[in-house]
Amino acid sequence: MLRWLPALVILTAALAYYGSYLRYWFNPHDEGGTVCLIAQRLMQGERPWADVALGYNAGWFYPLVGLFHLTGVNYLAARAFFFALSTITALLGCGIVTRLSGSRWLGMAVGLVLVALPGSQFKNYIPLAEMANTACLIHFVFVDFSPRVRWLRMVALSGAVLGLTALVRVEIAIFFAVIWGLLLLFILADKRLALSQRATHLFLGAGLLVVVAMAEQMPAYGYFRSLGVEAHFARQVPAWFGALRGGLADQIGASVSSPAAAAPADGAGNAPAPAPDRSTLARRPLSDIWSGSAKNTRILAFLTYAPFVGFTLFFAGGVLSLGLRIWRRGFVLHEHSMKWLLLIGGSLTTFPQFFFFRPDRPHLSEFMPGFIVAMVGCLALLKGGAKASRTTLLFTGGCTTFFVVHLALFALFAFQHPSAGTIAARTGRETKFVGENGVRVRAFKREAQTLTTIRDAVFKHSRPDDFLVCYPYMPGYNLMTNRRTYLHNVYVDNATHEPGWVAQTVRDFEEKKPAVIIIDHRAINGGPASRFPQWAAPVYEYVKIHYVRVAEIRPGNEPIEVFAKSLTPIAP
Q1: 309 forms bridges with which residues in the sheet?
Q2: How far apart, in whole angstroms, are the C-alpha atoms of residue 252 and residue 246?
């Protein structure tokens, strides 16, 4: 009974905690609207990639398709599903820390922290994939090579987890595949085996891992082939590498040049027109830690760069210790240094998305669950025991103090806004709002008024089979009004729109004739150039000329405008 007590406590805490704010907060421009809307479109016969851009791999959405066949398209059912994923993540985190530390109570404490800080809602696949693969890596190094059947069974389980990860989020699977490749190579240095046995285990392990992971792709490939989109499915890995190269080029280019400097002067010597600002959300500079203009600015800057302390200390220590053990021919796969490296490697798989591409609160909260487990696990392995030297104790104490401060600041930051997935969603939200597709939530009074005004304007000026188009990114409005969209990709901003996007958008207006168009003026990437009327001015002007503004809401300083084909209401 004692063995299962931590899991029981974590499950009970998750049910109570997530149940307390399941019905609170609805954000029209977050992943909840996206995932539910795409699942609905897939249910209605649209094809992934060909008819609707997914953003992630198809496995992200098809579990919801199955759920919606039971519940109908239901926002709250989707939220409960993602909270269930967070609960599994917490249990896995508990298991990892318990295995490394030998303490069920430390494992339970970490599991409860992960329940309280689950990560951005509707993106909980990310910490789950990270935790599941890390758990396989850590458990693998503890399994003896003999009997070989048991060892191969662990490899097969790890391959299954890796294959499922690839069906959900390709880049995380790629990162973990690299980690697995490096780990299996270290079998060649394990002193417990003869050289021939090392080679046999390496090839058997690598082969089985690949075979199982690839076998899991086959049923999905067959299904997508029946839809005629198997090429899209197969291209996801090379497409990710292409996107990575483009993203890195943008990062490098942005740091060494300005848009205006890239354009040559004309023949008359006139100054060139500045190129369009295609910058993404900017990362806080390191100096903001001590000179930021506001408390939260300084906290976010600290949280952005603080992980490098843990990464550097434990990676450098792990590499040095590992190198010495191999040099002295005393290496075994379950060395503490190997576990450090596996923990750090696992937590790094979700760091680039936050640090390089979207350094904000939601993406930070996706990364932190894995980092918390990695740091607690590394610190648990670092403990020196009763015979530890004074230097070791001081170093361990310093690392622990820094991590506790880091975790406390993250908790403070995460509990300020529901975008981190915490119970902050419940604070102060008591006004009921009811929309379509299970959007039955409580919100701030002003939030509810905004949602109600938009819902009523859409219902008044469109039929259920009409198109509703929202810019730059508000899939929640389609969900809560149950109105279709023809957009291939519901996300567009100043940085991601393709050449020819303006002309194609106007052609779509003329061919598809959307009944209602909603335009939000918010600066989606932080700067004025990322406001839709700025970077998409021709589209905005077309809408103002050919449509009638039937509602304007100002939830803050940035208005939301609702345009319809005419002022004449459509009969229900």
Answers
A1: none
A2: 10
Whether 179 and 137 have beta carbons less than 8 Å apart is answered as yes
b/e burial code for range 444-477 (CB count within 10 A of at least 16 → b): eeebbebbbbbbebbbbbbeeebbbbbbbbbbbb
CA distance 36 to 439: 11
Q: Which residue has the tokens 């591409």?
A: 357
CA distances (Å), 162 to each of 85, 130, 221, 256, 507, in order? 17, 10, 16, 38, 43
State both tokens at 518.
Answer: 């909603």
Q: Tell me, rounded to whole angstroms, the distance of Cα 184 from its chain centroid.
A: 28
State whether the Cα torsion 101-102-106-110 is positive or negative: positive
From first CA to last CA, the distance across the chain in angstroms is 59
- CA-nearest of 362, 350, 361 to 121 is 362
SS3 549: strand
User: Tokens for 369?
Assistant: 């669950």
Note the pLDDT tens digit of each residue in 39-49: 999 999 999 99
The whole-angstrom distance between residue 271's C-alpha and the CA centroid of its chain comes to 42
Q: Of 20, 122, 27, 5, nearest to 439 (Cα)?
A: 27
Nearest CA to 344 out of 181, 138, 139 is that of 138
Two tokens at 2?
């004692």
Quick: pLDDT tens for 216-262: 999 999 999 999 999 999 998 888 777 666 666 655 555 554 444 44
For residue 469, list its beta bridge partners.
Answer: 517
Please state whether beta strands 468-471 and 516-520 pair in parallel, antiparallel, or not at all (unpaired): parallel
Q: Count CB-CB contacts under 10 A for residue 542.
A: 17
Q: How many residues does the chain have?
A: 572
Instruction: Report the C-alpha gap between 131 and 363 in whole angstroms.
Output: 16
Q: What does pLDDT average to over the chain? A: 90
Residue 58 DSSP label: G
Name the DSSP class of 524.
T
| Token couple for 173 | 């699977």
The string of pLDDT tens digits covering residues 164-193 is: 999 999 999 999 999 999 999 999 999 988
d(CA 54, CA 168): 11
Read off the pTM.
Answer: 0.92
Nearest-angstrom CA–CA distance, 134 and 520: 40
Contact between 351 and 72 under an 8 Å Cβ cutoff? The reply is: no
Integer Cα distance of 115 and 10 in angstroms: 7
Shortest CA distance to 229 belongs to which of 53, 39, 62? 53
Helix (H, G, I), strand (E, B) or coil at 132: helix
Q: Which tokens hold the place of 399?
A: 């690392």
DSSP state of 48: B
- Stretch (H or E) spanning 533: helix 532-535
Contact predicate 18/117, CB 8 Å? no
